[in-house]
């Protein structure tokens, strides 16, 4: 209709040009029309023309691809960011956002949605995805007949509830009327290639529906949690780690302790790497040479045998030492090794998932091969193993305090099993195989879902038994440097006072100077009845409630399988008893704290 009146309105176009334009526009959808409109306007501006477009002639805005991520350790975040960059490069208008930052009320307005998520614990959503997950499965969730969506799950097949959160999101979005753009993918730890392939399939499928906007206006990308300043200062990352120097490796548990905990100090001098209290340090490590030697002996492979790892050709010895996982076991290894070795016992085990999971929970890779030695080829062994993943450790220092250093609190995984000593991969490397002055590859993993309050007057309650004290050492250093006036209350627990009181002198000094307002400790093996941090919380429930009502922020760090759940239950009890609420109202109270970022967890 608009074009038919152009000639009558003294259009600068000739009658023939109008007819040609009518023919073109009739073949275009609204998104393509928007692109043509923008292209013509930009061309006219480059030619020095002043262009006025009547409001009625402006086509509908280009569609937006919203990419949300639920991430416990940062992997889902990185995959989402990579997807955002790739889609933006194709001219898509893209928004990439942390699920914790996303306003669930906006879901009804989305037309193209991607969720990249990990799964935590027993099939639970990662911490930053809990609020959105609860909304989606509540009665408040809207019908979504216009939504087209895609879900990508990251997980670990070692766990029973592999990628369950992704499966839940996929099922629920479909129930609400959404239509899948492409099929969900559930990816294991070594997800790189598969994630890239899924990303390419998604973009190719969506390309016809997204206009190629002018480069200057194509991107609308929001990446909360990614510091542009930090990115400019350092080029080091998970893909390109920094080769740092180990300054200090100090055992901080007693001679008779059942635990071996190390205080580790690493130099970041010259890296430009920046971190905040609450962030984690990613650590790459080398496997034990003796473990590599034994594995090759059991499989009858010569150390200098060449193998292909992806597109890289190297010796089997180098591949096993530097690039492949030899400690954490997983179902895919048993399956592939069973086929390569011809072991009927292992093949039968693979068929019984429950039995296989139990078997793997007690064994490292070397234990499996020790029990079922076989002569296989070097390439078969490489193909059975997955790429080594860096380990993440909560940072135990404030950069404002230690400057070009980063400190860690590392619990060494050390135990006897099947008549042999066992060590953790990264913790064993840090504790025994890396000498002071040695080199270690590291990167910073930001965690914006575990942050001190911006207002230094705000009180904080920190619950960190064992090595869970690490980020709270960083919190206290930071608040000390900032001369923060907010009160600080720490709950710490471990087996024995004399053997396991980590950072005892530092904490007592903070008490003396007044930075640490309260310190409550639970040494579970020093009393006839075991006392843990959750018991201390309950004992001081009235004061905990008072702090919360005064606006305190609450933090938990440490074991997620048991401790964090026990502490959460203790908090529910406190809210019920002290706040006069029933169980449902108490849960809603804690949910509101979480939404307000006043209840944060860093659990593993």
Please tell me about this protein's structure:
The protein is of the alpha/beta class and 604 residues long. It has four domains: 65-211, Flavodoxin domain (Rossmann fold, 3-Layer(aba) Sandwich); 242-283 and 391-445, Beta Barrel (Elongation Factor Tu (Ef-tu), domain 3); 289-384, NADPH-cytochrome p450 Reductase, Chain A, domain 3, CATH 1.20.990.10; 460-603, Rossmann fold (3-Layer(aba) Sandwich). Helix content is 38%, strand content 19%. The strands form five sheets. Strands 1, 2, 3, 4, 5 and 6 form a six-stranded parallel β-sheet that branches. It has a six-stranded antiparallel β-sheet with strand order 12-9-16-7-8-13, with helices on one face. The chain has a five-stranded parallel β-sheet with strand order 19-18-17-20-21, with helices on both faces. Helix 4 links the parallel strand 3 and strand 4 (148-154). Helix 3 packs parallel to helix 6 (192-206) and helix 10 (331-341) packs antiparallel against helix 11. The protein is globular. The model is unreliable at 1-10, 41-60, 212-220 and 222-232 (pLDDT under 50).
């Amino acid at each position: 209709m608009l074009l038919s009146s152009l000639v009558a309105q003294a259009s600068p176009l000739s009658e023939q040009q109008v007819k040609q334009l009518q023919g073109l526009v009739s073949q275009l959808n609204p998104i393509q029309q928007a692109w043509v409109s923008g292209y013509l306007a930009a061309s006219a501006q480059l030619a020095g023309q002043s262009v006025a477009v009547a409001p009625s002639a402006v086509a509908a805005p280009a569609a937006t691809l919203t990419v949300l991520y639920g991430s416990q350790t940062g992997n889902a975040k990185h995959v989402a960011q990579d997807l955002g960059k790739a889609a933006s490069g194709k001219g898509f208008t893209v928004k990439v956002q942390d699920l914790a930052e996303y306003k669930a009320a906006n879901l009804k307005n989305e037309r193209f949605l991607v969720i990249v998520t990990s799964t935590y614990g027993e099939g639970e959503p990662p911490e930053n995805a809990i609020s959105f997950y609860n909304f989606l499965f509540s009665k408040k969730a809207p019908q979504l007949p216009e939504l087209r969506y895609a879900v990508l799950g990251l997980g670990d097949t070692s766990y029973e509830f592999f990628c369950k959160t992704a499966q839940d999101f996929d099922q629920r979005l479909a129930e609400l009327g959404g239509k899948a753009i492409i099929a969900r993918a559930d990816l294991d730890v070594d997800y790189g290639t598969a994630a890239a392939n899924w990303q390419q399939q998604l973009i190719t499928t969506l390309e016809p529906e997204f206009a190629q906007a002018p480069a200057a206006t194509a991107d609308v990308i929001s990446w909360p949690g990614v510091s542009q300043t930090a990115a400019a200062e350092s080029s080091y990352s998970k893909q390109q780690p920094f080769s740092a120097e180990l300054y200090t490796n100090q055992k901080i548990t007693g001679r008779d302790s059942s635990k071996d905990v190390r205080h580790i100090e690493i130099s970041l001098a010259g890296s430009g790497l920046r971190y905040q209290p609450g962030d984690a340090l990613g650590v790459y490590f080398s496997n034990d040479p003796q473990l590599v030697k034994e594995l090759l002996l059991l499989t009858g492979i010569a150390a200098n045998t060449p193998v292909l790892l992806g597109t890289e050709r190297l010796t089997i010895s180098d591949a096993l030492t530097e690039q492949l996982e030899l400690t954490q076991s997983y179902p895919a290894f048993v399956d592939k090794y069973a086929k390569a070795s011809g072991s009927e016992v292992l093949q039968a085990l693979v068929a019984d998932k429950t039995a296989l999971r139990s078997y793997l929970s007690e064994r490292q890779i070397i234990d499996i091969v020790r029990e079922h030695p076989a002569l296989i080829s070097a390439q078969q062994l490489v193909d059975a193993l997955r790429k080594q993943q860096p380990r993440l450790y909560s940072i135990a220092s404030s950069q404002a305090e230690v400057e070009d250093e980063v400190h860690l609190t590392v619990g060494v995984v050390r135990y006897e099993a099947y008549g042999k000593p066992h060590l953790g991969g990264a913790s064993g490397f840090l504790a025994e195989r890396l000498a002071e002055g040695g080199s270690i590859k590291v990167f910073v993993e930001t965690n914006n879902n575990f942050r001190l309050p911006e207002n230094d007057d705000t009180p904080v309650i920190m619950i960190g038994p064992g090595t869970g004290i690490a980020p709270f050492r960083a919190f206290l250093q930071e608040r000390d440097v900032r001369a923060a006036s907010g009160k600080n209350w720490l709950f710490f627990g471990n087996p024995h006072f004399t053997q396991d009181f980590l950072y005892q002198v530092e904490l007592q000094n903070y008490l003396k100077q007044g930075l640490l307002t309260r310190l409550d400790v639970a040494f579970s093996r020093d009393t006839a009845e075991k006392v843990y941090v959750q018991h201390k919380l309950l004992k001081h429930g009235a004061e905990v409630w008072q702090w919360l009502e005064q606006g305190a922020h609450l933090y938990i760090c440490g074991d997620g399988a048991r401790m964090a759940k026990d502490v959460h239950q203790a908090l529910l009890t406190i809210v019920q008893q002290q706040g006069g609420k029933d169980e449902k109202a108490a849960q809603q109270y804690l949910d509101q704290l979480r939404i307000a970022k006043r209840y944060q967890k860093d659990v593993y």
